[in-house]
Automatic annotation (TrEMBL):
Gene3D superfamilies linked: Winged helix-like DNA-binding domain superfamily/Winged helix DNA-binding domain
PANTHER family found in the cross-reference section: ARSENICAL RESISTANCE OPERON REPRESSOR ARSR-RELATED (PTHR43132:SF2)
Keyword annotations of the record: DNA-binding, Transcription, Transcription regulation
Family annotation (InterPro entries): ArsR-like_HTH, HTH_ArsR_DNA-bd_dom, Metal_resp_trans_reg, WH-like_DNA-bd_sf, WH_DNA-bd_sf
Domain HTH arsR-type: 1-95
Protein name according to UniProt: Transcriptional regulator
Family annotation (SMART domains): HTH_ARSR
SUPFAM superfamilies: Winged helix' DNA-binding domain
GO molecular function: DNA binding; DNA-binding transcription factor activity
Highest rank taxon of the organism: Bacteria
Length: 112
């Protein structure tokens, strides 16, 4: 029995719904990194990092491989970086809209 597309999309967004996972993906946009470099940039316990990387791997968002004895992680596809960029654009537009609304409210003054 196959999963409906909307359900698969919801699962993908659920996987992306964790700050550590988002930060890992942001860092991997520059290229593959070993776990130790991810840990030096993200203040979490190694066990927590391992759990978050496992979630990203199972979802197919990142891949891992060995290089000179180090476990390296990389984005599985450039589309992941595109998705992060789209998220930044959407967030920027939403925040801009909120700023505009706030400015409009302030400009109208305080009605009594």
């Amino acid at each position: 029995m196959s999963v409906p597309l909307y359900q698969a999309k919801a699962e993908m967004f659920r996987v992306l719904g964790h700050p550590v996972r988002i930060r890992v993906l942001e860092l991997l946009q520059a290229g593959p990194l070993p776990v130790r470099d991810l840990l030096s940039e993200i203040e979490v316990e190694p066990s927590n990092m391992s759990q978050q990387l496992a979630v990203l791997r199972r979802a197919g968002v990142v891949v891992s491989f060995r290089d000179a004895g180090l476990v390296m992680y990389a984005l599985s596809t450039p589309a992941v970086a595109d998705l992060l960029a789209a998220g930044r654009r959407i967030l920027g537009e939403v925040l801009t809209d909120r700023d505009s609304l706030l400015a409009e409210l302030k400009a109208q003054g305080n009605p009594r």
